[in-house]
Amino acid sequence: MYNAAERRNFYGRVHGKTLRQSQKTYLNEDLEKLSLPGVRLEDNPARTPLDLARFGGKPLWLEIGFGGGEHLVHMAARYPDVEIIGCEPFVNGIAMLLGKIRAADVTNLGLHPGDVRDLFDVLPAGCLTKVFLNYPDPWPKARHHRRRFVTQEYLVPLARCMAPGTELRVATDIPDYVRQTLEEVPQAGFDLISQTGLGAAWDDWLSTRYEQKALREGRDPHYLTFKRRAG
Ligand SMILES: C[S@@+](CC[C@H](N)C(=O)[O-])C[C@H]1O[C@@H](n2cnc3c(N)ncnc32)[C@H](O)[C@@H]1O
After folding, report:
1. With bands split at pLDDT 50, 70 and 90, how would you rate the model's confidence at 6?
2. Ligand 1, atom nearest to 133 Cα
3. Nearest Cα to Cα of residue 179 among 218, 148, 134
């Protein structure tokens, strides 16, 4: 298994609880065939852009940090004419996703079991037409805010990969994350389209594990939608 932490300054968890036997089977049997070739540095040290022909010209979406994969599988099932790439370095989450893919029998998904920055290196400019960032790691301590996804280190490469006029959705339960998102995302070439809260998520939203945890613990969701500016 590729370990994102070996290559980038990745601070999140890569391994969690011991995997169940069924999850080990999913990883052994399904991960390789769903993983996009040419994303890992060791497979493509020259960082040659990916050939997206395998997606047959369909719209290409990305979910960053899919956690247990419930939103990713929901979107794939709801939009069969779209191809969705899911990116997540946490092995237990990847195994959960693989189980859900088997159960839902969806085929319009590709994976990168690692850091999303690996993907940004090799995705052709403007190839993504929707991106989901659901409950990114909050890094609550002020000295860790620069580890957040909503920093120029992540946002500028993301903006390069997105087509003008396309949508970036951010969901978070942390008011200070909303503050930083509103400051940083426009600097990277996006315009805020809408900002809503509890009970006013996107029409096709499926609540995630982290959102359920936040609600149980009394924190309200915030939903922000940005549009990639032209140029
Ligand atoms: C708080 S969890 C939210 C998971 C899920 N989106 C949800 O709403 O339940 C944040 C997830 O982002 C993943 N993550 C953190 N940094 C990442 C990176 N650089 N690339 C891809 N995923 C990342 C973490 O492994 C973690 O699973």
Report:
1. low
2. 6
3. 148
Angstrom distance (rounded) from CA 39 to CA 161: 14
Ligand 1 site: residues with CB under 6 angstroms?
10, 12, 64-67, 87-90, 93, 115-116, 134-137, 208-211
Average pLDDT score over the chain = 94
Ligand 1 atom with the shortest distance to the CA of 87: 21
CA of residue 207 to ligand 1 center, whole Å = 15
**Which residues, in sequence order, are CB contacts of 60 under 8 Å at separation 6+?**
52, 82, 83, 84, 85, 127, 128, 129
Mutate to test the pocket of ligand 1, among 116, 123, 213 (most ligand atoms within 8 A of CB): 116
Look-up of token digits 């022909």:
53
Q: Whose CA is nearest to atom 5 of ligand 1?
A: 67
What ranges in the chain are assigned the alpha helix state H? 21-34, 70-78, 91-104, 116-122, 152-161, 175-187, 209-216
Rounded Cα gap, residues 69 and 87, in angstroms: 10
- pLDDT tens by residue, 113-168: 999 999 999 999 999 999 999 999 999 999 999 999 999 999 999 999 999 999 99
pLDDT above 80 (res 109)? yes
What residue has token string 């092995």? 91
pTM over 0.85: yes
